[in-house]
Amino acid sequence: LRANANTFCKVCQMAKARVFNLVKRFSGYPTEDDFQLVEEKLKPLQDGEVLGKTLYLSVDPYMRIYVKNMPLGSPMIGGAVARIVESRNASFQKGDLVYSFSIGWRTAFVSDGKDLTKVTHLPPDVPESLALGTLGMPGHTAYFGLLDVCKPLKAGETVLVNGSAGAVGNVVGQIAKIKGCTAIGCAGSDSKVEYLKSIGFDHAFNYKTVDLHQTLTQVAPNGIDAFFDNVGGEFADTVLFYHMKNFGRVAICGSSSQYNLKPASEAEVGKGMFDTQTQGPRLQGVILAKQLRVEGFMFHRFTDQDDEANTALAQWVQEGKLKWKEHVTEGFENMPKAFIGMLKGENIGKAVVKNTDV
C-alpha cells in the first residue's frame, strides 16, 4: 500500500512543471532578465496522451533567431529528451525515451504524442543526451550538410568548417576524415584548437590570433573544395573571395557572427532576420567566376532520411571513428545561463542542460 502511495505521489508531483517564458526581446546577447521562471499546472491526462519528464534540454544557436517570431510570455523554444512516466497512448509505453522540438524549456509536459519521436538508435553505454547532439539534430545537420549539400564529396578533397568545436562543426570535420578528406577547422581558443587536433582534424587554428587569409594560404595552398559555413560574416567573405577552388561547394548552415549584434536603435529590435544588417563585399562576381555552388539548408529538409543518418552516425560512434563531447550544465534553473554561455562560445561540443528535478 505504501509503495502504491509513493508512486501516486510521484505522479502527482509531475502534474506541475517548471517553465521558462520569454518576457523580453533580445538586444545583442540575451540576458537572464529576458526569461522568467514560472510553475505551470499540467492538465489531467486524457485518452491518447502521455505524461513526460524532461531529462536533458538542448541550447542551440538557432534559438537566438527563431525567438523573433515568438509572442512574449510564451515558453522558450527548444528540443529535449524525455522519459514517458505515464501513458494513455497506445503508441507509447511508460519508460519510453522520446525526443521533441516542441517540448521547450520545461521540466514536464503532457502531449498527444504527435510531436514526439521515440529514441531507439542510441548505442549501448552512451548517455540519453547524445540524442540531442552527435546522434541528434546537430549530427544530422553535419551529415546531410557535408554529404548531400556539398556533394559529391571525394576522398582527397579539402574541407573547411568554421565553428568547428561546436555541436555541428566537430562532427563535420570527423565525417570529412572518415570519407578520406583533409579536414581544416578553427575555434576561438587554444584549448578548443587542441580538442580539434585530438579528434583528428589535420589543421586547426585559433581564428582570433591569426591572419585568416595567410593561414588558409599555408594550410590549403591549392584551395578549398567544400566549405561548411556556420559563422558567415568576414570569415565567409575571406574564404569565398580568396580560397575556394573552381566548382567548389559551400553549405550555409548558420551565420553566428551576426546573431548577437547590437541593433542600431530600439526600433530595429525584433525586425527582420537579424537586428542589425551589416554590409559586406558583393560575392556574386566570385561565385560566377569560380562557378561555385552556394546553398543554404536546414536539417529538417532531410527528415525522410533520418534512418540513414541514425544508422551511419551510431555505427561510427560504436567503431570509435566518431568521437563526442558534451558541455553539461546541471539544473533546470540554469537554462538561461547555459543558453547565453553557448552563444558566447563557452562550450566544447554539444551544450545541454540536465534536469535535476526529482
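the 2nd protein, sequnce then structure:
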Amino acid sequence: KTAPYSELQPGTLVKLIVITKVNSHVANNGEWALFPTASKFAHSCNPNTMYSGNDLHFTATRPISPGEMISFSYIGGADLAKSSFQRQLRLHRTHMFLCACERCCG
C-alpha cells in the first residue's frame, strides 16, 4: 500500500504544506495546530479580538459592530507596536501576504 500523499504532484504537496503553515496557530503548549474556524478569521494590525489557550478561545478587545469582520493579529506581541513597514515584512515572511488593514493603509 502506498503512503497517503505519494500520488500527489510535488507542487500540490508544497501548496498543501504552505496552506497548513500559514493557517496554523501556536497553542499555549508551543505546539502548532490547525483550527478550522480560527483559520477563517482575518488578520488586522488593529484587531477586534485576541485568542488564548490551547483551544483558541477568542475574546473581543473592543466593541464589534454588526457586520464588522472578526479579526485578530497574526503577528501579535511586540511586533504590533512596530512600524507598518516592519509589520509588512514580518507578515510577508511568515504568512506570505501584504497587510491591507486600516492601520497599514490608513
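The beta strands are 24-26, 32-34, 42-43, 49-52, 57-60, 71-72. Residues 26 and 50 are 13 Å apart (CA to CA).
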